[in-house]
Amino acid sequence: MVHIAICDDEKKICAELNRTLIDILKNHDVRYSIDIFLSGNDLLHEIGSGAHYDLIFLDIVFASKEINGVEVGHLIRDAHKNHKVQVVFISWEISYAMQLFELRPLNFLVKPLEYDRIEQVVVTYFMIADILKKELAFKKGRDIHAVKIKDIVYLENRQRMVVVYLANGTSKEFYGSLKEIYDEQLKQLDFLFIHASFVVNFEYIATMKYNELFLTDTNKSLPISRNNRDMVRDAYMEIMKRRRA
Question: What is the pTM of this model?
Answer without folding.
Answer: 0.64
